[in-house]
């Protein structure tokens, strides 16, 4: 039967050679496992006489405690040594941190707002869930107009819908009765469109409105010309094409000369020299009367432009869906 001191010395010598967790566990099994050296000594107690057994049992318990304490002590030492090791190889080249940026649509919208603010326009907002009255009736949109059809508009019920444009905001502002008004209303709008390269069921618009005494179509042209020259460059020209909008009369589509080719014709402008930007016109007197504004005293103009449309032109993007797919390879370019 091995001497207790010999087993302790053997354990201490082997413990000094342990340098990792696996070796430490192997040592534990060697001494305290089912077939371990200490365990085997405990199994020999039954062969001793009743007089010898208590003394030997006490010796083995002390031996077991010494082994357990040694293993615990070495485990802590290994853990501390691991923590003190550097977790970063300082010889490696540095990594540039990823810096977040605004979404390209947000960048365009902020630029539009900044330009109009500098021209004296306030920025107004309104609800995205609108009533039929504010979205259509108050804007002089007749019941037969195709925009009111379920195929074009998302309805909740007979009275509520997702707004199809930001024009309802001008009605909310005019109802306050504080004139004159010079405002823009940027925001998200919804149309029941099937997604394709130029259409998406959700997009962003900026509605503009100016109501004051003596406002004319010339003021509208001057405002839009100043805006597009600030946005695309000082050489930009605009033109108006007759159109129909329920809430403006007369109405016109606005084209801007291509900023890329200067009007000579390129891929961006489809070789026409002009880029279609949005709609505009003088506020229809019926719209003013509907909110209690006397059209004999007050006149105004309204205009609208699409953020996605403007972004596609400015960045040379040919598919509106790219702005909504959250592909970082695309978004990191802006």
The helix/strand series, from N terminus to C terminus, equals HHHHHEEHEHEEHEEEHEHH
Spatial strand sequence of the major β-sheet: 1-4-5-9-8-7-6
Gyration radius (Cα, Å) is 40 Å
Q: Please report the distance between the alpha carbons of the first and last residues.
A: 81 Å
In short:
The protein is built from 11 helices and 9 strands. It is an alpha+beta fold and 334 residues long.
For the structure shown, list the relevant keywords.
seven-stranded mixed beta sheet, 38% helix, elongated, 2 domains, 9 strands, two-stranded antiparallel ribbon, alpha+beta, BirA Bifunctional Protein, domain 2, 334 residues
Overall description:
The protein is an alpha+beta fold. It folds into two domains: 4-84, no CATH class; 104-331, BirA Bifunctional Protein, domain 2, CATH 3.30.930.10. It contains eleven helices and nine strands. The chain has helices at residues 4-16, 21-32, 37-43, 53-84, 104-118, 132-135, 168-175, 217-232, 285-290, 307-315, 328-331, and strands at residues 122-123, 129-131, 160-162, 181-190, 202-212, 238-245, 248-257, 274-283, 299-306. The chain has a seven-stranded mixed sheet with strand order 1-4-5-9-8-7-6, with helices on both faces. A two-stranded antiparallel ribbon has the order 2-3. The radius of gyration is 40 Å and the shape is elongated. The model has no long low-confidence stretch (mean pLDDT 89).
